[in-house]
C-alpha cells in the first residue's frame, strides 16, 4: 500500500555548518522512532556515513530518511527528510536535492545569526519554489538573541520569521513543534498519480561494495516496483529492478515506491558514472511521455595533479582513483606525466573542499602517500589561429607567442563578518584582485559581495579569511563568468632546473610578490644539502625572485666505534625513510610537504 | 684490501668519576671492585664466545672502558691469557689499553706491559687546566705530560685523545694546542669534536644554556685547521677523527671501520661476527653487577642481538668505511648489498667535490665530504 500523497511531506534542511542541521536530523529520527535509543546510542550525526563527513561535520552525499509521524490531528504522515550537502563545492548536489522536494526547514543558530552559506542555500530553496519554515536553534544558549536573529532573517532574506519555531536540538526543546510545522505548513507533493506511467527522478547514487550501485529516487508519477524493467531516459540504458525500499535511515526493503515518495533501488548497475543525476527513470514497457527537465552534469572547476610519493605506487593510485570515481561522478581524472613527479593523474574537482576530501580519502582509505600539485582553475587560451583551448594544467601552456589572450573564471563571493574584521577582509579581497559589488550591514555584521578571480581564491583565500577573522567570517561563492586577464606563467627553478609541478599562472601585477613568497617558502621547506641551492622564480627567461639555500657546513659523527654501529645504522635507516618521502629534482631532494606548503601563500 | 681482521674487545665499565660529556657505559662505585670475580666472568664469557666463533686468529685486542687503567695488572694479564687460551693470538699483534692520566702509576704501567699490552691510548683531552676542569677531568696538564712521558718510555706505541671545539675555542688557539700536543710526539692522535650527547650532564647544562659550543660554521673551520696542522706535522687523518704516522694506525679500530669481525665481552660490549654464514650482532647487559650475575648463571651476558640483513650489512659497511681516508671497496659493497651504488649519485657528489674515486675499485670521501659525512652516507645509501 502506498501512502496517499496528501500525507507525504518531502523536505530538506538548510543551514550553515555548525548551526545544528545534523543534530536536528538526529532528534527528528529519534522522536519519530525511526531508530531506537540503542541504535542511536553513541552515534551523532547518524546521517553522515563517511568518517570524513562525521569528522568535518559536513555532508557529501545526499541521503534521505523516511519518518513515520502521527500528528496531533491523529493522522499518520510520511515525512521524508532529504539531507543535502551544505558546502559550496557541492552546490550542484544541493540543487538536485532541493528540486526533488517541496519545502525546507531553514535552521539558524539563534546566537550566531545568518551566515553566507545560509544565504546561498536558502535562495536556492526559494528558487525551487519551496515553502520555508524558519527554525531558530540553540535558543537555550545564554548568547541567544532570537528576536534580533528574526529581524535579521526578515531584513536579509525577506522571509517572514514571526512564526519561527524555537528549538534546542541539543536538549530536545521544540522538536515536536518542528514536526507539526512540517505537517501543517509544508505542502504535500503537488502532483502524483499512481495510475500514470512511471516517472521518477534520479536524485543521487553511490557505490556499495555488497549491493553495487544504489540509486536514490523520487517517484513523481506511477509506482516503482521490484522486478520492473526500468529505462533511464537520458542514457537509454535498461535495468531490471532488483530491490526497492526506503531509508529509515536503515535500509528497509519494500515491494514498491509510490508517487510522491523517496526510496532506493538497486538494479545491477556497475558504476555510479552509469547513472546521471537528474535523469528520468521510467518503465521500459510503458514509458512516460515526457522526461523531467534535465540537470546538467557537474563540471570540475579546480584541477590539480596527484602523484604517488613512491613511483612504485602508481598502479595502486590508478586503482584507487578508479574506485573513488565509481562513487563520485563529479570527480574526474586523466593520466598525467610530470618531468618532476613521474606518473600521476590530473584530477578535476568541484572545488577546494572537494579536492581536499578526495585527497584525504585516497590517503586514508587506500593508504597512499600523495603529492598534490598547485591547484589550478580552467583557463581559456585564445590562440592566434582563432581557436580556443582549455588549460587544466599550467605545464601544458602553449607558447606565449601563439596566445592572443587568456581568460580566467570569476566568482561572486558573499562574505559575512563581524565589523571589526572588515578592514582586513577588504584588503584581502583587494589584494586578490577583487572588485567590490556591495557592502551592507546585517545587524552588527557586514555583508560583503565581491567579484574575484577564482585563481586567487583556490590558493588559500579561505584559510586567510578564517585566520584574519579568527574564524568568524563566513564565505560562499558561485561561478559567474570568464574574463580576460593579464596572466603569465611563472616557473620555479630549483638549482637552475624548472620544477614543472610548481609552475602556475599568475596575474602579472602579482607575479613578483608571489614569486618572492614562493622562493622564501621553498628556502624554509627544502632541507640544506651538501651544496648550495639557488631557488628562482621566473617569467619566461626573466628571473623575478631569488633565494639561496646555503650548503650544509658540518654534519658528521665525531666518534664511531664498534658498539655505535647499530645506533648509526638505525639513524641511517630513518634518513633513508625520509628520503623516500622526497622527490629528486636534478641534484636536489624536495620533501613532498614542500609542494603543499609552498602554495599556502600568506598575505603578510 | 686484505681481510679486515678479527678483534677482541674487552670492556672495563668503571671510572673514578663520570665525565660530563661521556655517554659510554661507565659506572662509579664507592666500594672496591671485586676484580678476581670479574676475571672469572671475563674468562667464562670469552669461552662462550669462542664456542660461537670457532677457532680464529686474533688480529688485535682492545681493552676499553670506562677506565681500564683502574684494572690491576694481574687482571689484565688474566684476561689476555684467557683470550689466548680461546683463540690463536700471534706474537706481536696490537694489544691496546685505555688509560687516564689521573690513574697512572709507573709500576702499574710496567705491569700492563709485562702482561702483553703494547699500545696505550691516553685520555689527555686538553692541554690547558681551565678546559680540563670544564671537561670534568680529574687530572691537570702536568699529570698528563707525566703520563705521556711514562707511557712513551714503557710502551712501544702511544696514542692520546683530545677533545676540541670547546666553548669559545678559536681556530688559532686550537692550532697552537694541537702543535704542542704533536710535539709530545705520540705516533697516533684521536681528535674529537665535543658533541652534546643525550643523557649526559652536559646535555642538561647545554639545554639550560649554561654554555655554548661552536656553531656548524665555526666547527667546520676547526675541523679544517685540524686537518691542516696534523697533515703538516706528519700525522694525517686516516679516519674522521683519527690521525697517525703512516703505519701507526690503530689496527683494532681499523677492524671496525673496515667492517671486519669482532667479539665484545664485558658489560655493554658489542660484537659483530660471522655465524652460520651470516653476520650477527651481539650486545651484553650494561650494568656491571647484573652482567656478572648473568655470566655466572649461564656463561655469558649477551642480552640481545640480531642477524643482519644484506641491506643492513651494506649500510653499516658504508657508514663505517667512508670514515676512512682509504675509502671503501665498491666490489665489497656490491657483494654485501647485492646492488651497486648509484652511479648518478656518485657523479653528482663527485661534481660537488665531496667524493673521489680511487682507481676503478674504490670510493672515498674528500676532506670536504668528510665534514658532512652523515649527510653524504645518507645520500649514497638510499
TrEMBL record, chain A:
InterPro entries: EF-4, EFG_III/V, EFG_V-like, EFTu-like_2, G_TR_CS, LepA_C_sf, LepA_CTD, LepA_IV. One of its GO terms (biological process) is positive regulation of translation. It comes from the Bacteria. It is a peripheral membrane protein. One of its GO terms (cellular component) is plasma membrane. It catalyses: GTP + H2O = GDP + phosphate + H(+). Required for accurate and efficient protein synthesis under certain stress conditions. May act as a fidelity factor of the translation reaction, by catalyzing a one-codon backward translocation of tRNAs on improperly translocated ribosomes. Back-translocation proceeds from a post-translocation (POST) complex to a pre-translocation (PRE) complex, thus giving elongation factor G a second chance to translocate the tRNAs correctly. Binds to ribosomes in a GTP-dependent manner. This is Elongation factor 4.
Automatic annotation (TrEMBL), chain B:
SMART domains: Elp3. Transmembrane segments: none annotated. It is found in: Cytoplasm. CDD domains: Radical_SAM. Keywords: 4Fe-4S, Chaperone, Cytoplasm, Heme, Iron, Iron-sulfur, Metal-binding, S-adenosyl-L-methionine. It holds the Pfam family HemN_C. The keyword S-adenosyl-L-methionine applies. GO terms for molecular function: 4 iron, 4 sulfur cluster binding; coproporphyrinogen oxidase activity; metal ion binding. GO terms for cellular component: cytoplasm. One of its GO terms (biological process) is porphyrin-containing compound biosynthetic process. InterPro entries: Coproporphyrinogen-III_oxidase, Elp3/MiaA/NifB-like_rSAM, HemN_C, HemW-like, rSAM, rSAM_sf. Belongs to the anaerobic coproporphyrinogen-III oxidase family. HemW subfamily. This is Heme chaperone HemW.
Amino acid at each position: 500500500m502506498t501512502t496517499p500523497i496528501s500525507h507525504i511531506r518531502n523536505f530538506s534542511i538548510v543551514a550553515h555548518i555548525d548551526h545544528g542541521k545534523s543534530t536536528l536530523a538526529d532528534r527528528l529520527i529519534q522522536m519519530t522512532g525511526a531508530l531506537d535509543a540503542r541504535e542511536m546510542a553513541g552515534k551523532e550525526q547518524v546521517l553522515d556515513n563517511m568518517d570524513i563527513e562525521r569528522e568535518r561535520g559536513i555532508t557529501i552525499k545526499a541521503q534521505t530518511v523516511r519518518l513515520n509521524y502521527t500528528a496531533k490531528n491523529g493522522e499518520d504522515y510520511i515525512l521524508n527528510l532529504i539531507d543535502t550537502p551544505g558546502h559550496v563545492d557541492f552546490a550542484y548536489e544541493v540543487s538536485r536535492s532541493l528540486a526533488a522536494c517541496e519545502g525546507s526547514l531553514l535552521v539558524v543558530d539563534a546566537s550566531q545569526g545568518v551566515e553566507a552559506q545560509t544565504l546561498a542555500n536558502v535562495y536556492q530553496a526559494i528558487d525551487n519554489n519551496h515553502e520555508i519554515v524558519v527554525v531558530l536553534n540553540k535558543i537555550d544558549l545564554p548568547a541567544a538573541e532570537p528576536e534580533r536573529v528574526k529581524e535579521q532573517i526578515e531584513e536579509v532574506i525577506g522571509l517572514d520569521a514571526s512564526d519561527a519555531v524555537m528549538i534546542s536540538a541539543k536538549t530536545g526543546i521544540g522538536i515536536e513543534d518542528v514536526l507539526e510545522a512540517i505537517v501543517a505548513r509544508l505542502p504535500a507533493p503537488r502532483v502524483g498519480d499512481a495510475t500514470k506511467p512511471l516517472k521518477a527522478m534520479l536524485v543521487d547514487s553511490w557505490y556499495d561494495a555488497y549491493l553495487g550501485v544504489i540509486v536514490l529516487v523520487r517517484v513523481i508519477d506511477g509506482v516503482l516496483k521490484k522486478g520492473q524493467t526500468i529505462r533511464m531516459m537520458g542514457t537509454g540504458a535498461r535495468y531490471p529492478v532488483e530491490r526497492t525500499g526506503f531509508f529509515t535511515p536503515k535500509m528497509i526493503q519494500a515491494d514498491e515506491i509510490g508517487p510522491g515518495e523517496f526510496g532506493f533501488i538497486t538494479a545491477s548497475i556497475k558504476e555510479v558514472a552509469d547513472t546521471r543525476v537528474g535523469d528520468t527513470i521510467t518503465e521500459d514497457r510503458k514509458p512516460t511521455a515526457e522526461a523531467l527537465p534535465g540537470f546538467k552534469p557537474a563540471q570540475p572547476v579546480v584541477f590539480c595533479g596527484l602523484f604517488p610519493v613512491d613511483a612504485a605506487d602508481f598502479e595502486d593510485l590508478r586503482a584507487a582513483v578508479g574506485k573513488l570515481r565509481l562513487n563520485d561522478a563529479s570527480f574526474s581524472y586523466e593520466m598525467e606525466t610530470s618531468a618532476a613527479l613521474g606518473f600521476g593523474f590530473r584530477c578535476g574537482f568541484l572545488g577546494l573542499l572537494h579536492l581536499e576530501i578526495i585527497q584525504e580519502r585516497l590517503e586514508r582509505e587506500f593508504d597512499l602517500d600523495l603529492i598534490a600539485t598547485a591547484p589550478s582553475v580552467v583557463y581559456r587560451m585564445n590562440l592566434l589561429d582563432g581557436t580556443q583551448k582549455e588549460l587544466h594544467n599550467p605545464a601544458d601552456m602553449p607558447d606565449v607567442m601563439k596566445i592572443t589572450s587568456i581568460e580566467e573564471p570569476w566568482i561572486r563571493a558573499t562574505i559575512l563578518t563581524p565589523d571589526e574584521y572588515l578592514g582586513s577582509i577588504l584588503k584581502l579581497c583587494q589584494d586578490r584582485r577583487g572588485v567590490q559589488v556591495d557592502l551592507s550591514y546585517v545587524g552588527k555584521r557586514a555583508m560583503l559581495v565581491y567579484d574575484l578571480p577564482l585563481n586567487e581564491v583556490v590558493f588559500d583565500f579561505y584559510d586567510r579569511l578564517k585566520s584574519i577573522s579568527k574564524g568568524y567570517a563566513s564565505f560562499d561563492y558561485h561561478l559567474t563568468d570568464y574574463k580576460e586577464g593579464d596572466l603569465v606563467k611563472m616557473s620555479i627553478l630549483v638549482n637552475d632546473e624548472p620544477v614543472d609541478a610548481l609552475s602556475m599562472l599568475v596575474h602579472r601585477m602579482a607575479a613578483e610578490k608571489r614569486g618572492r613568497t614562493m622562493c622564501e617558502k621553498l628556502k624554509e621547506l627544502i632541507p640544506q644539502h651538501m651544496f648550495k641551492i639557488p631557488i628562482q622564480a621566473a617569467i619566461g627567461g626573466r628571473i623575478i625572485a631569488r633565494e639561496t639555500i646555503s650548503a650544509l657546513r658540518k654534519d658528521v659523527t665525531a666518534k664511531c666505534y664498534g658498539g655505535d654501529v647499530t645506533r648509526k645504522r638505525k639513524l641511517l635507516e630513518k634518513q633513508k625513510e625520509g628520503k623516500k618521502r622526497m622527490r629528486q629534482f636534478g641534484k636536489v631532494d624536495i620533501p613532498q610537504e614542500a609542494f603543499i606548503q609552498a602554495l599556502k601563500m600568506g598575505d603578510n | 684490501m686484505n681481510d679486515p681482521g678479527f678483534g677482541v674487545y674487552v670492556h672495563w665499565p668503571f671510572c673514578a668519576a663520570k665525565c660530563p660529556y661521556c655517554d659510554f657505559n661507565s659506572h662509579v662505585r664507592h666500594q672496591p671492585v671485586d676484580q678476581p670475580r670479574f676475571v672469572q666472568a671475563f674468562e667464562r664469557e670469552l669461552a662462550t664466545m669462542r664456542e660461537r666463533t670457532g677457532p680464529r686468529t686474533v688480529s688485535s685486542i682492545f681493552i676499553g672502558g670506562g677506565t681500564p687503567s683502574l684494572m690491576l695488572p694481574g687482571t689484565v694479564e688474566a684476561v689476555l691469557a684467557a683470550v689466548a687460551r680461546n683463540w690463536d693470538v700471534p706474537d706481536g699483534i696490537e694489544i691496546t689499553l685505555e688509560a687516564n692520566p689521573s690513574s697512572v702509576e709507573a709500576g702499574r704501567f710496567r705491569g700492563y706491559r709485562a702482561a702483553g699490552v703494547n699500545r696505550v691510548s691516553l685520555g689527555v683531552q686538553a692541554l690547558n687546566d681551565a678546559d680540563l676542569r670544564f671537561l670534568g677531568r680529574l687530572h691537570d696538564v702536568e699529570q698528563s705530560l707525566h703520563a705521556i712521558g711514562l707511557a712513551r718510555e714503557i710502551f712501544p706505541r702511544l696514542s692520546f685523545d683530545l677533545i676540541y671545539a670547546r666553548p669559545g675555542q678559536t681556530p688559532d688557539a686550537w692550532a697552537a694546542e694541537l702543535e704542542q700536543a704533536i710535539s709530545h710526539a705520540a705516533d697516533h692522535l684521536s681528535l674529537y669534536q665535543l658533541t652534546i650527547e643525550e643523557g649526559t650532564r652536559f646535555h642538561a647544562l647545554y639545554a639550560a644554556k649554561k654554555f655554548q659550543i661552536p656553531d656548524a660554521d665555526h666547527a667546520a673551520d676547526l675541523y679544517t685547521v685540524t686537518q691542516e696542522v696534523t697533515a703538516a706535522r706528519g700525522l694525517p687523518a686516516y679516519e674522521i677523527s683519527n690521525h697517525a704516522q703512516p703505519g701507526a694506525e690503530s689496527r683494532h679500530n681499523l677492524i671496525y671501520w673496515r667492517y671486519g669481525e669482532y667479539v665484545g665481552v664485558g658489560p655493554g660490549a658489542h660484537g659483530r661476527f660471522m655465524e652460520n654464514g651470516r653476520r650477527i650482532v651481539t650486545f651484553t647487559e650494561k650494568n656491571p653487577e647484573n652482567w656478572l650475575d648473568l655470566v655466572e648463571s649461564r656463561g655469558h651476558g649477551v642480552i640481545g642481538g640480531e642477524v643482519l640483513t644484506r641491506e643492513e650489512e651494506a649500510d653499516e659497511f658504508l657508514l663505517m668505511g667512508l670514515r676512512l681516508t682509504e675509502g671503501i671497496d665498491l666490489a665489497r659493497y656490491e657483494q654485501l648489498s647485492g646492488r651497486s651504488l648509484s652511479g648518478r649519485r656518485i657523479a653528482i657528489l663527485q661534481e660537488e667535490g665531496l667524493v673521489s674515486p680511487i682507481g676503478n675499485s674504490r670510493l672515498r670521501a674528500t676532506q670536504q665530504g668528510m665534514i658532512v659525512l652523515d649527510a653524504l652516507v645518507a645520500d649514497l645509501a638510499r
